[in-house]
Amino acid sequence: MDEGNTEEVTVARAPELPDGSSERAQPRAALIAIAVLVIAGTVAMATRTGSGPSRAAAPAVQARPDVIIIAIDGLGVAEVSGAGTPFLQGFGAGSVSYRDAYAPSPWASEALSGLLTGQHRPVSRGTEGWTPGLADELLRRGYRTALVPGHRRHAFEGAGLRPGPAAFEEVLLPAGLDDPAGAQGSSVAQAALGWLAESARPGLLVVTLADPRAPHHLYRGGEGGPGPGYEGPIEPGMAHDDLLRIGPDLDDTDRAQLAALHATEVAAADAFARQLVEGARQHRDLAPVIAIAGLRQPALGERGRYGLVPSMEPEDLRVPLWLEVPAASGGGRAPGEERVPGEGGGRRTLRGVVGAPVSLLDLGPTLLCALGLEPRLDLDGASVFPGSAMPERPLRAATSRGICAVVGLDGDRAVILEAEPPAALVRSRRAGVDPRRGLRWGPCDEVTGVDADLRLQLARWMRGARIGLPGGGVPDLEAAPFTP
Fold first, then answer.
1. pLDDT of 81 higher than 50
2. CB atoms closer than 10 angstroms to residue 202
3. Which of 153, 150, 147 is CA-nearest to residue 67?
């Protein structure tokens, strides 16, 4: 298949389902009995939040596949290699691979929110007729929905628990979630697959894995590993603040130790992703729709700094994104359909490479299209399902956390607007040194009319979206000076 093109496929449209609002209320005694059974069956290693009484499963609902999203905090494009991530490498080769995907924020929590809502900012609930996220869209069509976070920042806001950015029925809290590095992948996978196995009804299951960023859990096994004779300052379990403090003083040996620890984390994330995918495939006879995405690049050496440091550089916002969609059943084979080796003669899945730039904001609308459902038209994201017309629009990323900055990508040009001090930085894409990674973003001294137009569009969008300073206020950057 031509690497720069998508394959045109046909997706059968599933029938629309009622939203369940006219279902009969259950007798009080029956509800009490159900509640007792649910409490008694709670998994001991995970805490649940949210959820009301389950809906009866209509036959049309049962005909829909499960939807599984695995989001890995800190997994960048450079981390995916045949040696360190054999499962992810194989998964990408046997699915639809988005070669040029970008996170909508340098922070994992904001990127996850955008992935699940299709918007740069979560939308307040309560508006009549408003369904703000993928979970809401599938919930009202009879799906079960659950979020299993691998880190507290994926499920908590301030001091209070929130049921995810898009109103999941349940939020499962794996053992170890309160650890500084988050829950270990084994706890996350156990909680997620336990929830999936509880019912034959189709479900939306969103799982996040804590960032494979050294030097956290120091998983044993896998590629790489720490040097046995190392006696420097790098220790497993170090806080990001400590890394930021000692970062400027690290020598080559210390950096090699960080890289070795990081390799064990990436290998562990690869192994847990495989466990989740294989469990999801075995859950029902109907093959699931599976998406795997990185939420942000790892913070291992950004601009010579270590730890949680936001970067609005386009190359730092690039993330891996894959989508496995079961091909239409029947005797024929759809265009772009490949048979992937496996049990029973292999799975029939769509396969190909999407070369056009896409955002994690596009994943929700794309998944709805894969299910034959129409996404809303008022989203910042749009469907990039293979075979459909790719939307022509600049991609944007923004944050008000720690810094106030936005970036806009339009073709091979990008502009970064920074609020403090006001500045506009121009980036262009050019051929990289490594041909396998294709075009790379880098500094550009020349300012063109395209850059000036993009600066104006970004500044106006920034005001409209109220991307504000951390201390309050929305800056006006229409005339921000271009800075080399």
1. yes
2. 24
3. 147
Supply 41's token pair.
């069956």
Q: By the 8 A CB rule, do 36 and 80 touch?
A: no
Cβ neighbour number for residue 13 with a 10 Å cutoff: 10
Q: Residue 328's pLDDT is what?
A: 63
E strand or H helix at 326: none
Q: Write down the H helix ranges in 98-223.
A: 108-117, 134-139, 185-197
pLDDT in tens, 263-282: 778 888 999 999 999 999 99
pTM exceeds cut of 0.85? no
- Relative to beta strand 358-359, strand 101-102 is parallel
Residue 353: CB partners within 8 Å, gap ≥ 6?
Answer: 1, 3, 4, 5, 6, 96, 97, 99
The enclosing H or E element of 458 equals helix 449-464
CB 75 within 8 A of CB 150: no
Q: Residue 368: which residues within 8 A CB-CB, separation 6 or more?
A: 134, 137, 374, 375, 383
Q: Using only the alpha carbons of the chain, give its radius of gyration.
A: 23
Q: Are 169 and 136 in contact (CB under 8 A)?
A: no
Q: State the DSSP H helix or E strand holding residue 62, giving kind and residue range, or none if neither.
A: helix 59-62
The span from the first CA to the last CA of the chain, in angstroms, equals: 39
**Residues present in the chain in total:** 484
> Taking a C-beta distance cutoff of 8 angstroms, is the pair 398, 106 a contact?
no
As a whole number of angstroms, the distance between CA 382 and CA 393 comes to: 10
Name 25's Cβ contacts closer than 8 Å, sequence gap at least 6.
none
Q: How far apart are CA 141 and CA 238, in angstroms?
A: 45
Whole-angstrom Cα distance, residue 482 to residue 484? 7
Where do the domains of the chain lie?
Answer: 46-393, 394-484
Place of tokens 């091909």: 327
Joined together, the tokens standing for residue 464 give 């409209």
43-52, 177-186, 204-213: segment of lowest average pLDDT: 43-52
Handedness of CA 373, 376, 377, 383 (dihedral sign): negative
The domain defined by 46-393 folds into Alkaline Phosphatase, subunit A (3.40.720)
Which 8-state DSSP code applies to residue 321? E
Alpha carbon 392 to its chain's center? 22
Per-position DSSP letters for 120-132, written without gaps between them: SSPPPTTSTT---
Token representation of residue 183: 């829950």
Place of tokens 């703000």: 132
**pLDDT tens per residue, range 95-111:** 999 999 999 999 888 89
